Amino acid sequence: MTGAAIEVRIENQLVRFVPPTPIVQQDVVSQLGGQENSGVVIKVLDRPRATLIIDAEGRITVHGTQRVDAARAAAKEFMLRLGLSDVGLETELGPVIASFDFGMPLSITQIVGEIGAGTATYDERLGCCLLDDSRHNLTLKVWPNGRCIVTNARHSNMVAMAAVYWRDKFSENNFFIERV
Questions:
Q1: CA distances from 106 to 5, 34, 120, 142 (A)
Q2: At what angle do helices 25-32 and 68-81 cross, to 10 degrees?
Q3: Is the distance from CB of 18 to CB of 88 less than 8 angstroms?
Q4: What's the pLDDT at 3?
Q5: 30 φ, ψ (degrees, to nearest 5)
Q6: Phi/psi of residue 84, each to 5°?
Q7: Nearest-5° Cα angle at 50, 48 to 56
Q8: Where do the structural domains in the chain lie, given as residue ranges?
Q9: Architecture per CATH, 102-172
Q10: Which of 34, 57, 64, 105 has a beta carbon 3.0–4.6 Å from 28's, enabling a disulfide?
Q11: Can you tell me the distance from the alpha carbon of 71 to that of 53, in angstroms, rounded to the nearest whole number?
Q12: 26 φ, ψ to 5°?
């Protein structure tokens, strides 16, 4: 079971852009049809496909992209629609949501409890094991079919390292269920 690479898929990369001059929320509402909601303005773009949130400080948070360059393209398109330049736009990277598959079913009831570099609990609502991985500073949601969703990661490489680490740890402890 050890040795083979695990394919990690980035599902969402949260990116915030800070323009040199803050975006005026009311301009987004009046010029682009943005929607006000709880102190922020939300604008959904079709091309590139992304959801942009303008906070009270005039920063742009981009949701729904898998790559930073796609998020930047969305922010640039948004600023151009407002008649603004994207020159001087600063990028701040937020957490990554990623997924991968161990390729084998797991006995998640055996995982629950204190294990290695993390603490595991069972989430009845989701039907998975929540693994707080302090070694890689992220959270894994592990389902019995071997599928995993990773939240709070800072980079896809860290997710890949965690995937290999936990695959090896689960294999050592015989948590994988052999298919018959």
A1: 18, 45, 14, 9
A2: 70
A3: no
A4: 65
A5: -75, -35
A6: -110, 155
A7: 125
A8: 11-94, 102-172
A9: 2-Layer Sandwich (3.30)
A10: 34
A11: 12
A12: -65, -30
Q: pLDDT tens digit string along 83-116?
A: 999 999 999 998 899 999 999 999 998 898 767 5
What are the residues facing 12 on neighbouring strands?
97
Specify the CATH superfamily of domain 11-94.
TATA-Binding Protein (3.30.310.10)
Handedness of CA 10, 68, 60, 65 (dihedral sign): negative
Residue found by looking up tokens 């890689």 in the block: 136
| 38-47, 56-65, 118-127: least confident range | 118-127
Give the max Cα distance, the chain.
62
Mean pLDDT value across residues 33-59: 95
Handedness of CA 76, 79, 85, 86 (dihedral sign): negative
Of 108, 136, 133, nearest to 122 (Cα)? Answer: 108
Residues 141, 127: Cα–Cα separation, whole Å:
9
Helix residue spans in the chain (DSSP H):
25-32, 68-81, 108-111, 156-172
Phi, psi of 93 (to 5 degrees): -90, 135
- Tokens 């969305």 sit on residue: 74
The yes-or-no answer to whether 11-94 and 102-172 have a common fold is yes
3-state secondary structure at position 124: coil
Report the distance separating Cα 142 and Cα 131, nearest Å.
7
pLDDT of 13: 86
